[in-house]
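Q: Sequence in, structure out?
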Amino acid sequence: MAITFTQGVLIAIWAMIAGLDCWLQAFYIFRPIIVCTITGLILGDLRLGVIAGSLTELAFAGLTPAGGTQPPNTVLCGIMTVVIAAMNNISPTTAIGLSLPFAMLMQYILLFFYSTFSLFLSKFDKYAEEGNAKAFKRLNYIPLIIVTVSFGIVAFLSAYAAQGPMKVLVNSMPHWLTHGFELAGGMLPAVGFAMLLKVMLKGQYLSYLILGFVMASMIPFSNVLPVALVGVVFAMIEFYHNRDQAKLETKILNDQRNSAGGMDDGI
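A: Exactly. Output:
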């Protein structure tokens, strides 16, 4: 399929919204599962968007920005995974490998912004010393506008303007290379999940991991929804257990303080 001008504009607007959220880390609508789903909806293939979103989300599960270290951008990767898959009629596992250069391009643009925006710091100091709250507030909007517009321009150029060269590139690839991208794309979710477990896996949660593996791998299901619902049940049990435990500890602590006396009772 070909990306129309209207679809290109809608993708650019969606990239601006998701990109601003990515910069502010506010509502987390920049996560690939949402970015891909909305992009698929814009392109008229919601199913493709959901499949690409789940695949890309797992690939980025363990990647988190830390200070100046930025992973490939999730917004551009999610958008271009769906766009490339829809445009060239290839699987999302192949498209995710081809979308990584666009994600890395946006990553380097954001790193450039991190450096150049430090030029505003002297202005912020000046307005703070003068007590000029209006100018201080107004200056905050400039980096946000630059970042938001940049996401829109890059997404529009990548999804709409570059679709011709992208088609030529994908069609000129030999089968062994596209198959290699497909294998690499299929491995990325496992790599992302392994990186996530490296941080989150603790001995007390190992039993849940083993139970989930047994249910997902050894019990025949027509879909994974039952496994997800069982996971929700265990998460609710853990949540309410921890909350009741915290209330009990607070009550015991207050009782100990009251029984020990203090300045309030005059003793």
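The mean pLDDT is 83.
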